[in-house]
Write a structure and sequence with these properties.
Blueprint lengths: L27 E5 L2 E4 L8 E5 L2 E4 L15 H9 L4 E5 L10 H9 L3 E5 L1 H12 L4 E6 L3
Parallel strand pairs: 5-6, 5-7
Antiparallel strand pairs: 1-2, 3-4, 3-7
């Protein structure tokens, strides 16, 4: 498992980008407080799950996620179910969202590379990884 703090910038996907391969991970076009614009999606997300072949709103109530106890195993399992081999977990703009050791241990046991970062850095890393890897990500765009 790789818990990195990524510092190099990667460009966001071009506004005119379209998903050419239905099984690749969609790029993030723009991220701001409370808003995530994702390739192939007309409306922005507040919080989102991105994975090879698509994306969807991340509704924390589905799995019991909250700032505490943090990102749940069921949230990352969905990314793996869609074929993600690398996972990027954003902790929010101010790093308020926790990632429990149980979730990281689950990914390690599955031999899935995991990156835990503040949202802005997570977006940059996710977009870079999406160029070459089946990557999944959980993105929290506020606190």
């Amino acid at each position: 498992m790789n818990l990195t703090k990524q510092t190099t910038a990667a460009p966001f996907a071009d506004e005119s980008s379209t998903v050419k391969n239905a099984n690749r991970s969609p790029r993030i076009k723009h991220a701001a407080w409370g808003r995530l614009d994702v390739e192939g999606k007309a409306e922005p997300y507040k919080d989102a799950k991105l994975f090879p072949g698509g994306s969807r709103e991340w509704n924390w109530r589905e799995t019991g996620t909250g700032h505490v106890p943090g990102i749940q195993i069921a949230d990352v399992q969905e990314l793996l179910d869609h074929g993600a081999k690398v996972v990027v977990l954003s902790r929010g703009m101010k790093k308020c969202l926790q990632v429990p050791s149980e979730t990281l241990d689950f990914l390690k046991k599955k031999q899935v590379e995991a990156h835990v970062l503040p949202t802005a850095e997570a977006v940059k890393l996710y977009n870079r990884l999406a160029e070459t890897s089946p990557v999944g990500g959980l993105f929290h765009t506020t606190c």
